[in-house]
Design goal:
40% helix, Aldehyde Dehydrogenase, Chain A, domain 2, alpha/beta, 496 residues, 23 strands, globular, Aldehyde dehydrogenase, 16 helices, aldehyde dehydrogenase [NAD(P)+] activity, single chain, oxidoreductase
Length: 496
């Protein structure tokens, strides 16, 4: 695989888009305001990107609405829609190195993770929704004789997709794949930290044959561009992935404006429960380490609460600490890096404050606990494990979004379930046991959108992903994602 020098050379040559993309054209905000995007591995500026505000969002929405109403995409034969999206998937793979580099440089993840996981993942999701276009049938209702009632799905109109920085291209693909496949027009608003792959995605979509205006990308700050989309009276659907606080704001925006549909995929604090009869504790320890360190722990479904049955506690912790030693952070362009830089200095400091508060609250540090400076940049956090003193400390209650694991011991199954469920978040959970009955029993009782048994973070385009409680209620991926981007129409015919 390519060495560090190869990626450094690519980075030096790489152009960073500093514009939005509206109506098929590069667009600069009317105000001419910009915001800076920083490479967290070097603390240097990558670009000053145009900062869209309400007046720019109006133009993007008009473009999307006009494209939708014209039927140029919404009424296009399904085979043609499919061909365009398959071409987009192929173009994503053709630009795999560039997209991986843009992802890594803006948010700090190891470039090889982006290359091996994120970019092919996005291409696969787009292709999967492309292939699904002509395989979904509508319904005929069992109405009384002399009538025929059809239930058909229609595209809704203008969809605004607001996405975070932790998997910028993947989560954009999770939204635009089904939204475009269903025939909608989309306005994509990437995070201010990582806007580049969204812009390139829209450029590649144009190259693939998507008509102008069907996919617009607006760059800008959340409080400006994001809020303007949330409050816009001609946006029909918001599909949002991000923090619970901002998710709540989107529900208010909808209430204040046109009662647009709002679908939220928000934060998490997922429990990973290790029962004493789990036979492969080595694998459980390896996956527990992965579950908190992958993507620097900047994962909504990170397994950030570890619950271990008392009988195996010392043995399991020894294995876990051993596995965690493989996850020391490194410069993200280093091909051996398993963890890279945190997204920003401010976020790294926030993670450090969580660690300090947990220790001040009586937590016991079992590993890590410090930030690291690599090549003169201090944006790295060691894998950290803290045995927490109670359920009411912030490390147990709040989403940290870093490689910091909160650990508790339990004595029996009911205590494990109670500890796991006593939480505002309900995104994902993992259970390790070789007792089939226990696996099913516990899975049924856990509050979570996804329960992984004998693995962590089970994720595939074929199954829905999303949570309950304050983790939100939307579901990305699988055919169920179409529920967000289509509306049902009943057509009732009295036969004469
Ligand atoms: P964030 O909520 O700060 O930002 C998400 C998006 O909302 C960004 O595009 C941002 O610009 C925009 N935004 C911010 N403030 C806004 C406002 N006041 N009005 C309108 N828009 C606004 O989240 P983040 O820091 O980018 O991402 C991390 C969060 O995302 C974590 O909480 C994580 O759990 C969550 N997340 C959830 C999932 C999931 O599927 N459930 C997946 C990935 C990330």
């Amino acid at each position: 695989m390519h060495n560090r020098q190869y990626w450094e050379t690519l980075l030096q040559r790489q152009a960073f888009c500093d514009y939005a993309l509206i109506d098929g054209k590069r667009y600069v905000a009317r105000s001419a305001n910009t915001y800076g995007v920083i490479n967290p591995a070097t603390d240097t500026a990558l670009a000053e990107v145009t900062a869209c505000q309400t007046e720019d969002i109006d133009i993007a929405v008009q473009s999307a609405r006009q494209a939708f109403s014209s039927g140029i995409w919404s009424e296009r034969p399904l085979q043609e829609r499919k061909a365009v999206l398959l071409k987009l998937s192929a173009l994503i793979l053709e630009h795999r190195e560039e997209l991986a580099l843009l992802e890594s440089a803006s948010m700090g993840k190891p470039v090889l993770d982006a290359y091996n996981i994120d970019i092919p993942g996005a291409a696969h999701v787009i292709a999967w929704y492309a292939e699904s276009i002509d395989k979904i049938y509508d319904e005929v209702a069992p109405t009384r004789p002399g009538t025929l009632a059809t239930i058909t799905r229609e595209p809704i109109g203008v969809v605004a997709a607001i996405v975070p920085w932790n998997f910028p291209l993947d989560i954009a693909a999770w939204k635009i794949g089904p939204a475009l496949a269903a025939g909608n027009s989309v306005i994509l608003k990437p995070s201010e930290n990582a806007p580049f792959t969204a812009i390139r995605l829209a450029e590649l979509a144009l190259e693939a044959g998507l008509p102008a205006g069907v996919l617009n990308v607006v760059t800008g700050l959340g409080v400006d561009a994001g809020a303007a989309l949330g409050k816009h009276r001609d946006v029909d659907v918001i599909t949002f992935t991000g923090s619970t606080t901002v998710g709540k704001a989107f529900m208010s925006y909808a209430g204040e404006s046109n009662l647009k549909q709002v679908w939220l995929e928000c934060g998490g604090k997922s429990a990973n429960i290790i029962f004493a009869d789990c036979k492969d504790l080595d694998l459980a320890a390896e996956k527990a380490a992965f579950g908190i360190c992958f993507n620097q722990g900047e994962v909504c479904s990170a397994n950030s609460r570890l619950l271990v049955e008392r009988a195996i506690y010392p043995q399991f912790m020894a294995k876990l600490l051993d596995k965690l030693s493989d996850w020391q952070p490194d410069h993200p362009l280093n091909p051996d890096a398993k963890m890279g830089a945190m997204v920003s200095a401010a976020h790294k400091e926030k993670v450090q404050r969580f660690i300090q508060a947990a220790l001040d609250d009586g937590g016991i540090l079992r590993a890590g606990g410090a930030s690291l400076t690599i090549e003169q940049v201090a944006n790295y956090i060691q894998p950290t494990v803290i045995e927490v003193a109670g359920e009411n400390i912030s490390l147990w209650r709040d989403e940290v979004f870093g490689p910091v694991l909160a650990v508790k011991v339990f004595d029996d199954e009911s205590e494990a379930i109670a500890l796991a469920n006593n939480h505002i978040y309900a995104l994902a959970a993992s259970v390790w046991t070789d007792d089939l009955n226990q696996a099913h029993r516990v899975a049924r009782k856990l509050h979570a959108g996804t329960v992984s048994i004998n693995t962590v973070d089970a994720l595939d385009v074929t199954v829905p992903f999303g949570g309950n409680r304050q983790s939100g209620f939307g579901r990305d991926l699988s055919l169920h994602a179409f529920d967000k981007f289509t509306q049902l129409k009943t057509t009732w015919i009295e036969l004469r």
